[in-house]
Amino acid sequence: MWVNENGMLRQTSDETRVKFRTSISQEILEQLKQLADQHGTFVNYLLEDGLKVVLQQDSITFNKETRPKDRIQYKTTYDKQLLESVRALAKDHQLYINDVIEYGVQFIDVERAKAGQHRYRIE
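Request: output the structure for the sequence above.
Response:
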């Protein structure tokens, strides 16, 4: 992102975001990449949108038996507070964070997700 300081723009990293590595279904990831390309956004912004909806719900219905078998490592950045909330939710429901992330995919609304240009914003 860019910061306006005394009329001059300075590029800086967003302190509200943290790097996070997890395992996620390769099939889901490919679908999200295509969706992100079609709508001018990034996969992590789509995932964040789905996770926000999951956090607003009262419960999670997740069947541990149907976990995908094609999980691969995926590294990206997430909003720090959102990730902490997801960690707490996963712990409360005795799930892994990647289970909650994959569960949230079904609630993604590309119209609500941040646009790809969000990372180049000026504050």
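The mean pLDDT is 83.
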